[in-house]
Amino acid sequence: MTEFLTAQQHQDHLQLTALGFMHRHQARFGNDHLLCAASVQHLMDALDASQESAENAVIRAYGELRYQGDCGYLDLTLSTGHLAVLRNPANHGLYLLPVATLMHHLVDRRINQRLYLAATH
User: Could you say which of 8, 21, 25, 58 has the lowest number of CB atoms within 10 Å?
Assistant: First the structure.
């Protein structure tokens, strides 16, 4: 009997595969940008994932790999397409960041890169 995966199950599978690849190969790459690019390519080659699906899965996996346990987070319930709301549970702070400001400082300067890691540990 053939089992079909839902879209969410497929994305979860891609994310777990990407996370496993990153754990196994992080020492091989000189920086996180190269690790993420190789992870995207791995998902495309090994699982025939589209570039968009592979990038989405790698972004989520990268968050798990590098930032799990950090105290601050993006509050998706308050954020909109034009405003990112960050929460800091340690001091109960809310930080409102216009997406236009983020685009100007982080994205506009990297015109030729499709996937860019703004900051790493």
Answer: 8
